[in-house]
Amino acid sequence: MNRGSEPVDADLEDARMRIYAIEDGAVRAQALAFALKSGLFEVLEKEPLTLTELSARLEIPMRVLPALAAFLASQDLLRLDDATGEFTNSPAASAFLVRSSDSYVGGRGLLFAGFHEAMGHLGESLASGQPWTDAGQHDMFGGFDGDDQRWFAEGMFSNAVHGGRALLRELDLSDVHRLLDVGGNAGGYSITLLQSLPHMEATLFDLPAIRPLAEEQIQRAGLRGRMRFAAGSFFDDPLPTGHDAILLASILHDWDNLDCGRILARCFDALTPGGLLIVTEPMLAEDATGPEHPSVSGLTMAVLGGENRTQSAISRMLEIAGFEHIRRLPMGHQNSTITARKPLFEPAARA
After folding, report:
1. How far apart are CA 142 and CA 302, in angstroms?
2. DSSP letters along 126-177, please?
3. pTM for this one?
4. How far is the C-alpha of 282 from the C-alpha of 320, rounded, in Å?
5. Which residue from 21, 34, 111, 245 has the highest number of Cβ atoms inside 10 Å of its Cβ?
6. CATH code, 3-98
C-alpha cells in the first residue's frame, strides 16, 4: 500500500509541528526580539497599518516584512483586517508587548536575545555538566556594562511584576511590615507588593550599578517614601537588618549549591528572629516531568551555571541554613514558592 494514501494521524501531525517549533525556537525568539526593538507593537497600538505603510514607518524592507508579519500573525500577536489590508495588535500583544502596558513582558524577550551567544553553548554544558564559562553567573553579571544592566533590569522587571501579583494571590502578607528584597534588581516584585499592601515598606538590595534604574522605577511608582535602595553584593556585604521578611525572587536558581548556602547564611543573619523568608522561582517537579517553563528555564541555567531545583532540594537548603517551619506552596506553571521562618531563639551552635 502506498504510505501516502494512509489516513493522517492528527495527534502525530500536531506532535510533528511541535517538534518543528522546538527546532526553530531560536529563530522565533530572535524574530520577536527584533519586532520589540523596532517598536512595531507601539506603532500598531496607535493605528492600523498596511504592510507598505508599516515598512515605510519602521524602515523594514518589504523583502522580509511579510515573513515577519506572517510569523507574528500565526502566533496571534498581529491581526489582519481583510477588508482594509491593515494589521493591528492582537489583545495579547496590546497587553504584553507594548511597553506602556502595566502587563508588559517584552523586556524578557530582549533579555533572552542578549543570551544568544551563551545559548549557543547549551550542548556543551549538557554534555559536561559545566557552565559555559568557568565562573558561570559571576562572569555574566560582572561583565555587564550600562546598556547590559538596563536590558537585564527591564527584562527582570516585567517578569517580576507578574511574579509579585502571583505572590499576592498565594500568600497572606498582612503581618509583614518591613520587607528586604534581596537581589531585587529594579524592584518589580517589591513595588508590586507595596502597591497592594499600604502597610508595608521595603528595602531593595542590589549592586550599585542598579541604583539609577531602581530609583527610576520607585519614583515612577510613587513609592519614594516607603521604599529605599541599599547598594551591595549578597556575596561580599552584610545585608541590611531590621526586616521582618526577606524575599529571594529568582535568586537561588542563578547559583550553585555552595553560593546558595552563602546567600542563605547572610539572609539568616540579617532577618529578625521569627521573620519570614520567601523563596520564589522556577522549580521542577519532583519526578522531572515539568512544568514546561521551569524546565526550559532550567536549560538556561545549565549554561549560565545555576540550577532549577525541586521544592525538596530547596527545602533541604533552608534546613541546613537554620530555617524552620518550611512550607511548600502548590507548584506553579512559572514560579513556585517556599516559605520558612528564622527561629525566635537561635540554636546554641549558631550563638
Report:
1. 18
2. HHHSS-SSTTTHHHHHHT--HHHHHHHHHHHHHHHHHHHHHHHHH---TT--
3. 0.87
4. 21
5. 245
6. 1.10.10.10
Domain ranges of the chain: 3-98, 111-350
Decide if 186 contacts 149 (C-beta within 8 A).
no
CATH architecture of residue range(s) 111-350: 3-Layer(aba) Sandwich (3.40)
Give, for all 351 residues of the chain, the pLDDT tens digit: 555 567 779 999 999 999 999 999 989 999 999 999 999 999 999 999 999 999 999 999 999 999 999 999 999 999 999 999 999 999 999 999 998 888 888 888 877 776 777 888 889 999 999 988 775 565 555 555 556 566 666 767 878 989 999 999 999 999 999 999 999 999 999 999 999 999 999 999 999 988 998 999 999 999 999 999 999 999 999 999 999 999 999 999 999 999 999 999 999 999 999 999 999 999 999 999 999 999 999 999 998 889 999 999 999 999 999 999 999 999 999 999 999 999 998 665 444
Cell of 204: 531593595
